[in-house]
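User: Last request for today: this protein with guanine, please.
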Amino acid sequence: MTEILASKNLVATRLAEVAEGILVHKKRGITPKMRVFLVGANPASLVYIGHKERKAKSLGIDFELVQLNDDNASEAELEKRLEKAIIDTNHDDSIHGTFIQLPLPKSFSRQKFFNLIDPKKDLDCFHSLNIGKVYFGNNDLLAPCTPKGILTLLKDSKIEMHGKKITVIGRSHIVGRPMAMMLNNENATVNLCHRYTKNLSEHTKNADIIISAVGKPRFLTAEYFRDDQSQVLVDIGITKVDGKICGDMDYDNLIGKVKAITPVPGGVGPLTVLSLMENLVTLLNMD
Ligand code: GUN
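Assistant: Here's the final one, the structure of the complex with guanine:
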């Protein structure tokens, strides 16, 4: 039987802990607040922001969206406005955490903007100083949200990482790379695959755990895996196909063949939002 690694109950339990963490600050007269920046009006980004906003508000966290969406402004002008808005946020004591919803327009230097955010308000953990702490082996404080959520799930599901072979597919700065680093911190043997990887199925068949963040719907079919019910699949892909949300894994045809699999939706997505809220509590507790 394949175990379905749905995150609903785990997320509910952990969010209750976050709510307690928030309450401590409220009792001291502090209303925790996060601010998100969005450049443009990417519909998917607005959906993700909506999820984050609803969750934040349900936990008693104030949430503010600053949307830079001016068709008459050049990208250079929008960059200036974003820069100013981030600096203002750094100096605004009523804001405890902030992040830039990605993607940013292609011409923007993401790293420049990540590094403009005050590291003490860096909810995404993309500032070089904060991601540097992860590089030096620290998974337990601030960490990038999606990889942090996946570690939360694997640990809660008692899926061993120590000494295991883990293949991560996709090397983005926000998911694949930090994921590989954090798994390495957990003493896994990590194989980070990407678009130029040859014979991908050799890497997937050889792994104990396969984590995919590619964004190609149902791309990982049964041929990529052993059928001995020994492998664990974690699906980060979210793509809309005919109005339905699909992951990277060919989910329906993998049930019965693998040991465990995360569903899409209902798997990694809610864990990412949980991690964002946990990161806010971490930042609040640092003061
Ligand atoms: N867009 C897709 N994933 C992410 C993420 O982890 N953080 C932010 N800020 N934007 C995203």
